[in-house]
Amino acid sequence: MMSVTFGPFAFATVHLIFFIALVVAFGLAWILGRKYKVNATDSVFRILAVGLLFARISFVIRYFSDYASSPWQILNVRDGGFDLWAGVIAGVALAGYEIFKQRALFKPVAVSCLVAALAWTSMHGFYNHKYGNELFIPEVRVSTLDDRPVFLHRAFRGQPVVMNLWATWCPPCVREMPLLEDAQTRYPDVAIVTVNQGEDAQLVREFMLAQGLDITHTLLDPNSQLGTHIQSFALPTTLFFDANGMLIDTHVGEFSAARLNQAIRSIRRSSPVDASESLQDGE
């Protein structure tokens, strides 16, 4: 399951896993802090905050050129742009400093952070094994705007694929469309595929015309079979497949240009050498 809905709200499963790990960290810090009579929750909060901050800063620095046209997106942490190892290094460094200042923090802080990290790693690993690494381009039949059938698992063999599930009534979906159109130009060997969920051809044609958009692979899924197949009922949802058809990355919710380019470069690296050597845009 790639997303979970609570009433009108939808959350990516990976985000829920992260929040569960946070609850574990703070819960253990509070329990062990009481046991050892130290304020471990504040220390754990600072460690996590600094880790996330440095993970974000590292990502922004690496993809700074992608934020040039919309710098406010730097603050949009919902796009998922974080460098894990930069955050881990910063968090460990601050943990060492906190423990050096107050030795009594060693057990509460170390146990809380380690158990939370293990909880996140195990849940994330199970999720990737069950819903990620074993998922290939789905065997779902959709259609073009002129009602020609398209079998997704056959149509884009041998090339990396970005597959975006969207609808015209979804504001984040609409905001993403120009980024997908731009990616179509920047990465000509990558199939940029938009699969409309639950709407008819006339409505989608009128929308594309009104928005001035020209995305070659604009497909229709009137019964939302694709969303059901991948178990994501939140829009937009974007899937990133390598040239072998294997799912490499997913993104639930609106992405930034930097996050989109990061994921595309990832599927290009995972694709055969002869496919990646002909690319225009720099790594």
Structure overview:
- The chain has 283 residues and is of the alpha+beta class.
- It has two domains: 3-132, no CATH class; 141-276, Glutaredoxin, CATH 3.40.30.
- The chain contains ten helices and nine strands.
- It has helices at 13-36, 40-62, 84-101, 106-132, 152-155, 171-186, 201-211, 225-230, 257-269, 273-276; strands at residues 3-6, 9-12, 141-144, 149-151, 161-166, 191-197, 217-221, 237-241, 247-252.
- It has a seven-stranded mixed β-sheet with strand order 4-3-7-6-5-8-9.
- A hairpin with a 5-residue loop joins β8 (237-241) and β9 (247-252).
- The radius of gyration is 21 Å and the shape is elongated.
- Mean pLDDT is 89; it is low at 273-283.
Which descriptors would you attach to this protein?
two-stranded antiparallel ribbon, elongated, 283 residues, seven-stranded mixed beta sheet, disordered C terminus, cytochrome c-type biogenesis, alpha+beta, Lgt, Glutaredoxin, membrane
Segments where pLDDT lies below 50 for 5+ residues? 273-283
Major sheet: arrangement of strands: 4-3-7-6-5-8-9
Looking at the overall shape, the CATH architecture of the largest domain is 3-Layer(aba) Sandwich
β-strand amount: 15-25%
Q: Return the CATH topology of the largest domain.
A: Glutaredoxin
- The tally of structural domains comes to 2
Binned, the helix content reads: 40-55%
Q: Tell me about the largest β-sheet.
A: 7 strands, mixed
* Total beta strand runs: 9
Rg from Cα: 21 Å
